[in-house]
Amino acid sequence: MFGALNRFISRLDSESPSQSSRNASPYGFQVLRNKNLDISIEPWYDFIIGINGRQVDNPDPNLFATEVRNCAGSQVSLVLWNAKGQRTRTLALPVPTPSPTLGITLQWSPLSVSEDVWHVLDVIPNSPADQAGLLPYGDYIVGTPEGNVHGESGLGELVEDYLNRSLRLLVYNHEYAVTRLVTLTPSRAWGGSGALGCVLGFGALHRLPVPMTEPIAGPGETLFETARFSNDEHRPPSAQLRSQSPSIYPPSSSVTQSSDLIIPASMASPSPLPSQSTAGLTAGPPRGVKKPRAIPASNMSFDEYFREGEQKSKEEDFAPTTKNSAPPPPPPKSAKDPPPTKSPEQSAEIPSEEGDEERQASPVEKEPQTETANG
Questions:
Q1: What is the pLDDT of residue 17?
Q2: pLDDT higher for 17 or 137?
Q3: What are the distances in angstroms from CA 273 to CA 140, 276, 277, 279, 363?
Q4: Which neighbouring-strand residues pair with 105?
Q5: Cα angle, residue 71 at apex, residues 69 and 76 outer, rounded to 5°
Q6: Eight-class DSSP state of 366
Q7: Other beta carbons less than 10 A from residue 297's beta carbon
Q8: Beta strands 46-51 and 54-55: pairing type?
Q9: How many CB atoms lie within 10 A of CB 112?
Q10: Phi, psi (5° rounding) for residue 350?
Q11: d(CA 318, CA 333)
């Protein structure tokens, strides 16, 4: 009993990753070839994810062809997802009556196949990659005619299989927006590290960017657009909501402008008149509250206003004025007189007396030494 239960749980665990990965990655019809040059569909990079306002969720190509034939003599609306920048767009194509086809070759595949891209970050001189003409930062390895390459280690395994043999790679250049076929020979005997001699980047930071021919997205615009189908809720764009919302700023005609001078707002509004009930009160402001600054009259010029401010700042800083400035008072006299200063003659006599005493004492100190030597 327990063995059967364990086998059942293990079977559920083995099936759940495949189901979650299948549901997590959306699918679509990848365009492999375009024979009709009049329609702007790019092979390998474009995926058809919707048709006539409905999402493509069935891998049967006959249903897709039937939907196209039903639009014979009119137009068919396709929703395309492009791997360059991961953007979606809607394209309306005319369907001819004699042969109701679009002239494209499709393959049902997940959109995640466009993530298998290797960004060329650096090319070492005289390496196989350098001799093949790979360019750093501008080139992206998107595939190979030799087979399918999946995962980060897929390109490395392919290079190991083609050591000392010619290997063809499909390389997309971002600066020129062209895809070319590059042929190189991987080798470990070229004198450097690696079989290709280049540094490659893989992952979310190295996806195919938006072509340089498209306009740069402005501030606030989304980088990744999503397609909307008939079953989605319709929401107005943000630009329409901003246009319908009332403006927070008054119109320019309602603002009164003075013809004399540009007066600040604090100076243009006159001070309110005191009421009769509080006209006789002269009490000061409450404790802890700063006294409000007086608002100057509106007819005061800028020179008078700045002169008054300069005068107030001088009074607060206790700065003396240049006119009629009295000299500072002398310091007060102390009760005790200072000690008399010595003259230069007295100060010179003191060292001379000390020198005489030293000369008188020096013979006395030398006499015992002389006696000791004689004895």
A1: 41
A2: 137
A3: 76, 9, 12, 9, 104
A4: 33
A5: 110
A6: H
A7: 11
A8: antiparallel
A9: 13
A10: -65, -45
A11: 27
Residues making up the chain, counted from first to last? 375
What DSSP string runs through 67-105? Answer: HHHTTTTSEEEEEEEETTTTEEEEEEEE--SSS----EE
Pairwise CA distance, residues 295 & 345, whole Å: 72
Strand partners, 183: 168
Q: Using CB atoms within 10 A of its CB, is residue 156 exposed (0-12), middle (13-18) or buried (19+)?
A: middle
Q: What is the DSSP string of 22-68?
A: HHHS-EEEEEEEE--TTS---TTTEEEEEETTEE-----HHHHHHHH
Helix, coil or strand: residue 159: helix
User: Are 181 and 122 within 8 A, CB to CB?
Assistant: no
Q: Please give the sequence-ordered ranges of beta strands (E in DSSP) within 166-250, or none if there are none.
A: 167-173, 178-184, 198-201
Q: Tokens 């009930």 sit at which residue?
A: 277
Counting Cβ atoms within 10 Å, is residue 192 exposed (0-12), middle (13-18) or buried (19+)?
middle
Hey, how many other C-beta atoms are within 10 angstroms of the C-beta on 57? Answer: 10
CB 204 within 8 A of CB 30: no
Where b means 16+ CB within 10 Å and e means fewer, 203-240 reads eeebbbebeeeeeeeeeeeeeeeeebeeeeeeeeeeee
**How many whole angstroms separate alpha carbon 149 and alpha carbon 129?**
19
Helix/strand/coil for 132: helix
Strand ordering across the sheet containing 178-184: 178-184, 167-173, 139-143, 118-123, 198-201
Q: Residue 361: in which H helix or E strand, if any?
A: helix 344-374
CA distance 188 to 156: 13
pTM over 0.70: no
Tell which residue, 319, 318, 294, has the closest CA to residue 308: 294
Q: Tens digits of per-residue pLDDT, 321-370?
A: 555 556 677 777 665 556 666 555 555 554 544 445 445 544 444 444 44
Q: What is the dihedral of CA 204, 208, 210, 211, to 10 degrees?
A: 160
